[in-house]
Design brief:
This protein has 4 domains: about 100 residues, 3-Layer(aba) Sandwich (Rossmann fold); about 60 residues, no CATH class; about 110 residues, Tetrapyrrole methylase, N-terminal domain (Cobalt-precorrin-4 Transmethylase, domain 1, 3-Layer(aba) Sandwich); about 130 residues, Methyltransferase, Cobalt-precorrin-4 Transmethylase, Domain 2 (2-Layer Sandwich), CATH 3.30.950. The chain is built from 14 helices and 18 strands. Strands 13-14-17-15-16-18 form a 6-stranded mixed sheet. Strand 9, helix 8 and strand 10 form a beta-alpha-beta unit. Helix 5 runs antiparallel to helix 6.
Amino acid sequence: MNTLLPVFLKLEGRRVLVAGGGAAAVQKIRVLLGAGANVNVVAPEFCAAIRVLAGDGEITVRRRRYRKGDLRGCAAVIGAADDPVLHRKIHNDAGRAGIAVNIVDTPGLCTFYFSSVFQKGDLSIAVSTNGKSPTLGKLIRDAIADEFSEGYPEILETVGDLRGDVLRTLPDFDSRKRLFEQIVRTELGRRSLAPGKTKGGRDRYSSVEGKVSLVGAGPGDPDLITVKGLRVLREADVVLYDALISGGILAHVPPSAVKIDVGKRGGAPSTPQQEINDLMIREARSGRRVVRLKAGDPFVFGRGGEELEALRNAGIEVEIIPGITAGTGVPASLGIPLTHRAMSSSVVFLTGHEDTAKSRGQIEWDRIAGTDTVVIYMGIRNLHGIVTRLLSNGVPSGRPVAVVFDGTLPGQTVVAGTLDDIEGRVAGQTCSGPGLIILGDVVSLLHQGKQKALVQESSRTL
């Protein structure tokens, strides 16, 4: 059990000793300087970084071994010498002198630990792992930074500006406490950051109507959602998500939020678009923060434009958070550049979802034939028609093609060939996930990357 007392120590202008002259010492020195400490360093030798700090007058150094007298006047001492015998002596000396001591990577010889700290302005949030894993503490700190970097520091400034007046006006502790709570809650509600909600989902401290965020989740890999998209997702009251959204991304949805699957899959029952629009409008009008979570980018074959129009017509506030679309993210993850000075100076993105057999088509295939790189979404079911249109409009039969199923996910499958044999190669696949078609000479660069083992290569040389 962690029995540490979390405190913030004022070291500004106070003397702190660091015993050690290497990288571990540098790390601690920088933290101490950030706290305004008067840093004194003792060691037989110093690394270049410490010499620079000393030359700039930021620290005081003594080139010799540690002595007990070095602790005189110190508020704390850090052992960072990579010398167990010396560290034990420092620990014992500090204990007898009643001085706080930290021995790097030796929790048993520490009376205090350095925490992983997120800091912005006067807001500081520290994470302790009781000395067991500073690395994990840093990862948690980074997650906290994502959550609290916007809005909260500004609220702190507002409250800080009022604090003096409150202290002068209300001498009673309980009265001051209640007023500060009211001020903070009002600011949280005004900035749509209030953590508490009524049973209906509306923020307790805000009467502002909810809004909808159209968020792009990226091409599949949970790590490819944007930082802003992740932050908004973690603040959601309601999440309407596509069928292609991975569980790794949905894991970031708050437990208190309502999750609604409104996904569309070809040939399967799906939620009508009008119903999705009505859901978003109804939930936003109830004061909730709604996230419409869409695979890839909302505005690239994602019907985001239709949803934006419906929300604006209903007078709903809308926020657009772009995502990495599959057409750029999947090729990049495979080492396929869509443009290349020696191979491709033009790119076109197409939907393969339209009926390519109909006489009146929206895609001008004769113009597409002159494009260096073609990326086709949702085209697997119409692959035969797509190939036929490309060949009939002059695209060489030997043009390299790659079809990628479940791109950027652990189970992705890449099928490579040429325009005249890709149908047969894809027909042999049992993949059920969505497929992306990439056509162009740049596909040949796939074979130079780490993904070669995943590729079923054509008998032709690409």
